Batch of 2 targets.
Target 1
Amino acid sequence: MTKRLVITAVGAALALGGLATFLALQGLDAADKWSSVLSLFFTAAGFVLTLVGLFARGSGQSADHAVTGGSLHQVRNVTGDVVITAGAGTGTAPAVPAPAPADGQGGGGTQSAHGARTAGDLHQIDGVGGSVRVEPPTSSTP
């Protein structure tokens, strides 16, 4: 686990423990009233966060620092059909190491392949209004 995740988990556990202690010291009637008021605020906050999640869509696709042994296709917001003919990859990803981001952070967006290394094709497809078909590579040998 990362340090940030551990700190977040410990903080959440302390906050819940503090809330439970507070409510236990209030008595049954007062704790019931407090929990009703807190429930209202948590419900309103959850509703606002849901709306933010629905309408604040990320910047799109990202393939930051991806190293592939084949091809990379990014398709987004196409109103018709999409046909991708997969390439015949080399079978191994190139030995070139992926450079670190200059600001120390990844690209963000709705899809990501941050730090990905593949030995074949990489497809990121989002928002296609028709059908998507990925065809196998065609053989050049008779």
Target 2
Amino acid sequence: MPVDRIRGAAGAFAVGALTVHLASTVLQNTPDSYNQDLRTFTGGWPIPGWRFFAPNPGVQNVHLLIREAPAGGGAPTPWCDVTPGVRHGWKQVLWNPGSRGPKALFDAMQQLSVMSANQADFGWVTQSLPYRLVFSASRAAAARDSSALQFLLMNVFPSAPPDQRMKPILTSEWIPLGSPAGAGKSIA
């Protein structure tokens, strides 16, 4: 009999502790809880705090557009979206080695967005590693016979009203091909 009571009490305690832990975890991760620390109420018991995208969730997509100057002169080509597509499927949850390249480009474009938002000097931006990475991705998408290219980073807000969905972030100078990014003179 006493063994059954002890087992019953231990089981009730375990269920109660798990319930308190789960409830504390949910309360700790609500949108308004980032200023609160519920660990003061749990006697030092660790409560996980997940902030995947908070407090600034992603509400926009960054697109890379390029246009090229033909080798023999003439008008530049129209802007063309060369943002790498990202495949989504159930297999990508387990194994997705192809995501590293687009992720590196996305991170570089985000860094250029931050520089632009903070009014960084354009000369400094053109010498940065993110600028060179975006130029390299643009160059890979350009035609072989182009003499120069220009790239544009564009924020697209899918949930915004149609007339407010796109906002340009950064437009590069015309970069002569055959020279490293930012090393040549602008030919505009």
